[in-house]
């Protein structure tokens, strides 16, 4: 299990729900690559409304037919490990936003594995 405490770096990737990488949802590709890279963790959050560089508003409201809702992928690990992962994000994310934030990990604990 990866240990993580104290200073860390959070990368947040904002893309569209319908964005794909080789017929796979882009958010899923990013999470699986983060896992393969041994990063501490990644989570995907689906937005209900938003807009980006295109200035098109995407919403989940019933009167809207948008199927490209915003998705945020959040990854937290040490600065070194996150920065090593950034080239993969550069190759994957052609439209969207990638941001980095300093953060402090207070608690990072998984479930105990049962034998």
Explain what this protein looks like in three dimensions.
The protein has 115 residues and is α+β, with helices and mostly antiparallel strands. It is 22% helix and 36% strand. The chain has 2 helices and 8 strands; from the N terminus they run βββαββββαβ. It has helices at 26-36, 79-92, and strands at 6-16, 20-21, 24-25, 42-46, 49-50, 58-59, 70-77, 97-105. The strands form 3 sheets. A 4-stranded antiparallel beta sheet has the order 4-7-1-8, with helices on one face. Strands 2-3 form a two-stranded antiparallel sheet.
Oligomer: single chain
**Helicity range of the residues?**
10-25%
Please indicate the percent range of residues in DSSP E strands (runs of 2 or more).
Answer: 35-45%
Secondary-structure element series: EEEHEEEEHE
Helix/strand structural class = alpha+beta
Number of helices: 2
Roughly what is the average pLDDT, rounded to an integer?
Answer: 87
Parts with pLDDT < 50 across at least 5 consecutive residues: none
Separation, N- and C-terminal Cα atoms: 16 Å
The rough form would be described as: globular
Gyration radius from CA atoms, angstroms: 16 Å
**Strands side by side in the biggest sheet:** 4-7-1-8
Largest sheet: 4 strands, antiparallel
Total count of strands: 8
């Amino acid at each position: 299990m990866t240990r993580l405490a104290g200073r860390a770096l959070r990368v947040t990737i904002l893309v569209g729900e319908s964005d794909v990488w080789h017929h796979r949802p882009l958010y899923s590709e990013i999470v699986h690559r983060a896992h393969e890279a041994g990063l501490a963790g990644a989570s995907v959050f689906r937005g209900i409304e938003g807009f980006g560089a295109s200035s098109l508003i995407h919403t989940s409201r019933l009167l809207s037919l948008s199927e490209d809702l915003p998705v945020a992928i959040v990854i937290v690990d040490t600065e070194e490990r996150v920065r090593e992962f950034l080239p993969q994000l550069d190759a994957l994310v052609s439209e969207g936003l990638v941001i980095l934030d300093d953060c402090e990990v207070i608690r990072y604990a998984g479930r105990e594995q049962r034998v």
